[in-house]
Amino acid sequence: MDSFEMNKVIGGLLGTVFVVFSVALVSDALFSSPAPEKPGFIIEAAAEPAAGGAGAEAAGPKPVAELLPAASAEKGAAIFKKCEACHSGEKGGPNKVGPDLWDIIDRPVGEHEGFSYSAGMKEFSKGGSEKWTYDNLYHFLISPKAFVKGTAMGFAGLKKDEDRADLLAFLRTLSDNPKPFPAAAAPAADASKPAEAKPADASKPAEAKPAEGTAPAETKPAEPAPAQ
Q1: Burial of 67 (0-12, 13-18, 19+ CB in 10 A)
Q2: DSSP characters for the chain?
């Protein structure tokens, strides 16, 4: 290779180095982000409450005894249509996917004639000693599988307290002898309130007490009147 060819190769290498170096300088100038002279504001996210804290636990369902007096059996009949795919409600009605629900209130759990219950329901029944009370049905209808472990009932549940109470009001009518609603618990007395003072009995006269430090006045016998 003669000197002319060598000069061309060296010139090409130097040109390439120059171009790469120039591109690097231009890139640094375009995309550099110098730190500001005065720092900006720091945004702090609000800390999320720890799981299990005071506000983490949702309130439980309202007591069924408080809801039943105002429950609507008419609304419950409309809700019962969701149950008719698996249950009948007439007296002497057939068992379907689930047992007939005639006279279900206070009926022993797992004891309906002719129906084959799941192992989970048999265990929950405690040999027939457990009954379908208003309270048991009320909580069972929230989520059957959560209330009775191992039940074969695939119903998703009724999440609204009022819907379950309305359905129970309707189920109560499916009987020749409807069971009375349970009595609502009396409100607990508020211990933080002071006891109210009872007014004095105005019919009893107040007893006059002598002032302290003073001797009671002596009563002298009356002197006899002079003879006239």
Answers
A1: buried
A2: --HHHHHHHHHHHHHHHHHHHHHHHHHHHHH--PPPSS--PPP-PPPPPPTTSTTTSPP-PPPHHHHGGG--HHHHHHHHTTTTTT---STTPPP-SS---TT-TTPBTT--TT----HHHHHHHTTTTSB--HHHHHHHTT-HHHHSTT----------HHHHHHHHHHHHHSSSSPPPPPPPPPPPP-TTSPPPPPPP-TTSPPPPPPPTT-PPPPPPPPPPPPP-
Nearest to 63 by CA among 171, 143, 153, 168: 168
Residue in 57, 83, 81, 70 with CA at minimum distance from that of residue 162: 70
Is 151:120 a contact under the CB 8 Å cutoff?
Answer: yes
133 and 167 Cβ atoms separated by less than 8 Å: no
Decide: pTM greater than 0.90.
Answer: no
Backbone φ and ψ for 36, nearest 5 degrees, come out as: -65, 150
Q: Copy the structure tokens of residue 8.
A: 């061309």
- Any bridge partners for residue 108, and if so which? 131
Residue by residue, pLDDT tens for the chain (228 residues) are: 566 677 777 777 777 877 777 777 766 666 555 555 655 544 444 444 444 444 433 578 999 999 999 999 999 999 999 999 999 999 999 999 999 999 999 999 999 999 999 999 999 999 989 999 999 999 999 999 999 999 999 899 999 999 999 999 999 999 999 999 999 876 655 555 555 555 555 555 555 555 555 555 555 555 555 544
